[in-house]
Write a structure and sequence with these properties.
By secondary structure, the chain is mainly alpha-helical. It has a single domain (5-265, 353-454), classed as Alpha Horseshoe (Serine Threonine Protein Phosphatase 5, Tetratricopeptide repeat). Helices cover 48% and strands 7% of the residues. Strands 1-5 form a two-stranded antiparallel sheet. It is globular and about 60 Å long. 50% of the residues are buried.
């Protein structure tokens, strides 16, 4: 199921290992000069970009911190001091430009972008099979766009690097809308170049590029164009809802008919495993390593599930039994990434980036309130064992849709972008955690201080 990783380890060697964005691109550029000469080199190179998604600065840790815990779904957990300070600050909107997790996200994200830029810059003159070349270009554009989407949501004003960095080059910030317009162009090309399905599980497909494109268009407020893209996904790309929500989770259920794109992790002591099980499980819950109980579901998240919602039990737990002494503890924790890793931080569990339920709910959003949009929402609700809703159900349409997205996509990194897109971030966060005033809720993270120091023309995001 994860044979892409047989070449990932080799590909990682090609990727930059720098700790600084301004050093990443020239390092990758030097590798490109020596390495990117034939089709196999580019396969290894694109695999290195996929491997970059595993990094703790990307999906490995920083993204769930910034896009899930930042919202009202989860908090930092019981540990709020020492190494957990960075999570506590992000959850409470008290972090500054020196926060290590925010810095890691910037570095890890731009590392993937730098590697993708080298591929796109070098591949055109290389003699290789045209279908393979187009696929690699499409994958590089998708991966770069996926990262830029997250950077634009998180930081807003960022450098939009589309070519390998040249030493001495001035980096210029652009606003998020400029980034989104570029992503529309890139993702249209990516969708055209990619395959509907791929024998190498884990690679981007047409459906992955189209799903990200639709999400970008919704973020820009271009609902009509998003609707066209989403209808194409539904009609042409062969996805379907899995019958039982619980069958979406766990290593045995990965890359299924509902999955559109997943970050692939593989255990076995080869530095390709995920840390989600250890990060999210309560302390003492695991047989191997420590559980930190981070990304802990809030009471608001717990109460968002209606009675008999079949999504609740696979998504979160409220009590756990210590396997060592049998003591029962009441504490909320995320269950979607449960596993029994052979060693600490070495789980086989993937991270699902996009799945078909999100497509159905995004189409409802793009259409707006109508019988068809309620029908799309009800497809998702019925799978969870819930009755239909319609225009007569209490609440306005957007409130009902946002609630459905919250419970369906909980702990999958959609909540913070959703709250921003729906314009209710301050309200929802203050309701979930009253100690955070609405005035304290910032829509953008600070640019890391390291980047401010080495780029004197950068403008810092405001408080």
């Amino acid at each position: 199921m994860k044979k892409i990783f047989t070449t990932l380890i080799i590909g990682i060697i090609v990727a930059s290992c720098s700790d600084n964005f301004t050093d990443i691109a020239p390092t990758s550029n030097r590798n490109g000069a020596d390495f990117y000469n034939n089709a196999n080199d580019f396969i290894f190179g694109i695999n290195a970009s996929y491997a970059g998604l595993q990094d703790n600065g990307v999906y490995g840790r920083a993204y769930w911190t910034m896009f899930e815990m930042r919202g009202d779904n989860t908090d930092q957990g019981p540990d709020q001091t020492g190494l957990a300070r960075v999570f506590t600050e992000i959850n409470a909107f008290t972090e500054d430009a020196l926060n290590e997790q925010i810095d890691a996200a910037w570095i890890g994200s731009y590392r993937v972008i730098a590697n993708s830029n080298v591929i796109l810059n070098r591949i055109d003159p290389i003699d290789m099979d045209a279908t393979l070349k187009n696929r690699i270009i499409g994958e590089a554009l998708f991966l770069r766009s996926l990262i830029y989407y997250h950077l634009a949501v998180a930081y807003g004003n960022i450098p939009l690097q589309l070519t390998p960095f040249i030493p001495g080059e001035d980096l210029i910030q652009v606003d998020a809308n400029t980034v989104y317009h570029q992503l529309v162009t890139d993702l249209q090309t990516a969708e055209q170049n990619l395959l509907v399905s791929n024998n190498d599980v884990g690679r981007a497909t047409k459906g992955a590029a189209a799903t990200l494109l639709a999400k970008v268009l919704l973020t820009m407020g271009n609902n009509s164009s998003a609707e066209t893209v989403l209808r194409r996904i539904i009609s042409d790309y062969n996805y379907s809802l899995i019958g039982n929500y619980s069958d979406l989770w766990g290593a045995a259920n990965e890359n299924n008919a509902e999955s559109i794109f997943e970050v692939q992790f593989i255990s076995g002591g080869i530095d390709q495993g995920s840390a989600f099980t250890n990060d999210f499980s309560p302390s003492g819950f695991l047989q191997n390593g420590q559980g930190f109980g981070r990304n802990r579901p809030t009471l608001v998240m717990q109460n968002a599930y209606k009675a008999n919602d079949q999504r609740f039990q696979p998504s979160m737990g409220t009590t756990w039994v210590n396997p060592n002494d049998g003591v029962i503890t009441t504490a909320n924790y995320v269950r979607k990434y449960e596993s029994n890793p052979p060693s600490e931080n070495d789980s086989d569990v993937n991270f699902i980036v996009f799945r078909y339920a999100d497509v159905l709910l995004m189409l409802a959003e793009a259409i707006g309130e109508s019988p068809e949009s309620y029908g799309l929402i009800n497809q998702v609700r019925n799978r969870a064992g819930l009755l239909d809703i319609d225009a007569s159900t209490p609440g306005n349409f957007m409130e009902k849709l946002l609630h459905e997205r919250q419970v369906e996509l909980a702990f999958e990194n959609h909540r913070w972008p959703d709250l921003k897109r729906f314009g209710v971030a301050a309200q929802k966060i203050s309701e979930a955690e009253p100690f955070i005033s609405q005035s304290a809720v910032r829509n953008l993270f600070f640019i890391p201080q390291r980047e401010m120091d080495i780029n004197p023309n950068f403008v810092q995001n405001g408080n």
